[in-house]
Amino acid sequence: MQESANVISLPGKEKATIQNARVVSVSGKEAEIRLAGRSLAARVAFSCLVQPMPEDLVLCAKDEAGEYYVLSIIDRPGEQDMTIYFPGDAAMVAEDGVLSVAAGKSVNLASGGRLTCFSDQAVHKSREAVVDFDQLTARGENLQANFKSVLLISRMISTMAGQVIEKAKSYIRHTEDYDQVKAGQMTRKVDGLYSMDSKRTVMVSRKETKIDGERIFMG
Questions:
Q1: Model confidence pLDDT, tens digit, residues 7-31
Q2: With a threshold of 0.85, does the pTM exceed it?
Q3: Which CATH number fits the domain that encloses residue 21?
């Protein structure tokens, strides 16, 4: 049918197309791409979680309004490093399964604010561990620690407990300055030799002093 001379055709919207392009630069969700020899502004699609890098070969689409979007990364020349980028809050959920994170070299967790872990049971096993805190508060019902050797270096250690029981094969304590023990009652039982060596010894009893032995040597 021939178009009437009195009918004016309306300009149609651009046809959406999908093409390959090279990334020139990226800043957040804004990118510059090179397409058919031209540099064009584009936006990284919301579903493209892998952050594009310069020289990436990407799949881009032009919508009906003429805006370009980077949909996915086809190829990355050189090193295959990857960054998964979330523009806002994000959650990884395996509601009825297991969520695993594995790396051949190392796994790093960093938070500008709080790092919170909740679990019914936590297991940490490593050949070497370093824990560094400015302030540490630990609470629990029971604590069981099994170490071959323990070295504590501190300017001050304060322990408060209802009852303390220590059992050791050998126990050596060295105090360079001043050592004081204050107790309501004190009992010491030694199966073998009990030896005390000092430059001066002062023993004061308000009521009675009893020394009992088969043989007592003084002087």
A1: 555 555 556 578 999 999 999 899 9
A2: no
A3: 2.30.30.140
